[in-house]
C-alpha cells in the first residue's frame, strides 16, 4: 500500500512539473551562498576618515579592487577572489558600517564612501587599480572615475545607477531581494563590531539612498576611464532602460548584459561573471 501511494505521489508531482503546476526556480531567482574565501595574504583594519575599515588582500599581480553592494560585505566575492587572485593582487573591504567595519555619525554619501576607499588604497600603497563594483560598489566606482580618474585603470560597474529614478520601484516586493536583506541582517549580527545596531545602520544609510546618486548627463560625460556598464538580464533593482542610458552617456562605455542572472549575478553564475570581468579588465 505504501509503495502504491508513493508511486501515485511521484506521478502527481511529475504531472505538476510538466504542466507548470510546480514552479522550478530559475537561476536568476536563487540566492546561493558565497563561495568560501581563500586564505588572505594579509588582512586587518585601516584607519580611514574616522572609522576602522576591514580589508583583505589576496594574490599578486596587477591590482583589482572589488567593492560590494549595500548591506553586503567583502566575502560576497569569494568566487571572484579565488579566480582573480591567480594573477592579480585582489583587494576587498567592508564599506563603512558594513560587515566588520565601523561607522561614525557622519552622514552617508557616495563621495564619503569613495574617499574611504581611496584612503584604503593609500594605506595599502596602491596608486592605481582596476575596480569591480556591484550596486553601491559600482556607484562608488563611478564617483571615483568622475573625481579621481588617476586612481583607476578600468571600471566594471554592475547594477549601478546614476540617478534615484534608475531604481525599480517594485524592488522591495521581490522575494530574492527580500531574502538578501534578511540574510544581510543575519550576517551583520554575526560579524559586526556593533551587532545590535543593524536597524540604526540601515536607517542611517537609507538617508543616502533616498536622494543619491543624482548625477547629470554632464557629470557622466566627463568620465574618461574605460567603463563597462553591466546588468543581469533579470535584475530586480536597476532598470534596463537606465542601464542603457548610462552606457550611451558615458563616453566609450561598453554595455554588458549578463544572461539568466539578476542583481546577484556573482553568486548565481560565478564562472560567467568572472569571465565577463576578465574579458574587460584584462584586455
Automatic annotation (TrEMBL):
Protein keywords: Signal
Range of residues in the leader sequence: 1-24
Keyword Acetylation: no
Coiled coil: none
GO molecular function: serine hydrolase activity
Entry-linked InterPro entries: AB_hydrolase_1, AB_hydrolase_fold
One protein family per Pfam: Abhydrolase_6
Keyword Signal included in the entry's annotation: yes
Source species, domain of life: Bacteria
Protein name: Pimeloyl-ACP methyl ester carboxylesterase
Species annotation: Phyllobacterium trifolii
